[in-house]
Amino acid sequence: MSLILRVTFVLSAASTAFTSAARPSLAGEPVFPAIEGRAVLEHTKVLASDDFEGRAPGTRGEERTVAYLTEQLQKIGLQPGNPDGAWVQHIPLVGTTVQGTPPLVFRKGGAERRLAWRDDYVAWTKRVVDRVGLDASDLVFVGYGVQAPEYQWDDFKGVDVRGKTIVVLVGDPPVPDPARPGELDPRVFGGKAMTYYGRWTYKYEEGARLGAAGVLIVHETGPAGYPFAVVQGKTTEQLDLETPDGNASRAAVEGWITLEQAKALFEMAGQDFDALERKAATRAFQPVPLGVTATVSLVNSIRKVASANVVAKLEGSDPTLKDEWVVYTTHWDHFGIGPAVNGETIYRGAIDNASGTGGLLELARAFAGAVPRPRRSVLFLFVTGEEQGLLGSTGYAEHPLYPLAKTVAALNLDALNVHGRTRDLTIVGLGLSDLDDVLRRAAAAQGRVVQPDPMPEKGSYYRSDHFPFAQKGVPSVHAGGGVEYVGKPADYGRRVREEYIRNDYHKPSDAVRPDWDMSGAVEDLALYLRAGYEIASAPGRPEWKPGTEWKPLRDAMMKAEGR
Ligand SMILES: [Zn+2]
User: Fold this and answer.
1) pTM of the entire predicted model
2) What's the gap in Å between 333 CA and the centre of ligand 1?
3) Residue 6 pLDDT > 50
4) CB-proximal residues (5 Å) to ion ligand 1
């Protein structure tokens, strides 16, 4: 892709603390209104206020959020983003809650092990049915449950798991690097970085493809990226997209068991968990029938939940290119009102993701004031249900309002940096597409450098709202924040990140604080604005880099388009 357009976007010295400003226009260079940190903070305070009740899909919090976003987008002067003239795209969801605390029972001959709901295991079904379960389903250990021809990897080796329950490890198979003892081979499953094969969602999808009745993942904090407490969160109501087949093609039961229970299960089966786990990191691994059965009965209460993405558009200036789209995504939802933590029940989600929502409103305002207008059209997509598994963005990708073949890029914002300016910009998905180059140029214009995700082992690329676009072939990226803070000790970035995860992440205490410093968020938003403008105005389109997972899909889409 060639990008000939030069965009100048600099911070004026006097405004580095809270606003960014465009330099006066030189001939042919676009001018943008400044991003105002104050405005981002105001939006964030409103969205994270008690009135918005934690913004859970299908609640009064959603009504207020959708009304607020619509009002603000209207005020900015954007147009309704839905071709039918609406500011919303309806995303019908279905909520399923397992009733009671059913045990999961493992049996072998006369021996029996009962796993306690929530403490030892969690399970649910994606099928929209009142009752579902496993009735003495044979357990088979399938290692990492991966079929990846590009790595000559097949954990199933043709073993028929139809009607059976697979026990599977989380994460990618950790293949040691023959050249560097103690490190992972970067040529297989991304080395230290997690590929999609490592994600728990993949394990369930693969189990369903192979006709397994049940899929039980062994929880291990390191490879999962989070403690069992996070998995226990799945014992409350689970929201899913409503689908025509009621998810009949999914496995009947999906779930997790603790590492301790997995070890006990393998002992019951006369197997050594640690030895088999080591074996599973090799291509020679063979599935192991455990000679143990699993029985569980789930009774569900089911309700339909009407939710919505909020969409606004800025039409491009070019008569042809205006049919092509740059999409910005961010999620407006959070967890609503839930179990009390330190006496507080409203999960405000100030950073996650009132901040990104407020940030995208402000970015949209600045974009709407860009002179000249970009040649392509820009869609501002505020999605629902991210916290429940990227539901709003997946719903959009399944039923796009504009053709995905004409969607040139998706840029996602989530959880802004509220701790001040950084010298670097973290790109989650660095190395995957030409979007790197656009972001790198925009960062350089601010005197910043781009860096890869500092924690690639957590698989962040698969955990945000740009990912459903990637899965459909659209080059997409998630960027924001950094590690090296200006004027702060070297470990400051790591410290604030760890403190947030430990103390506030997905807890009621994720609230707006008086000591927030929005200067870093302002820079990130200005950078994203510049990058989006460049993509929307350039003659060429960004592409996936050769060898990336979604390039063949994109190439096929472009071919079908006659490009
Ligand atoms: Zn979240």
Assistant:
1) 0.87
2) 9
3) no
4) 352, 387
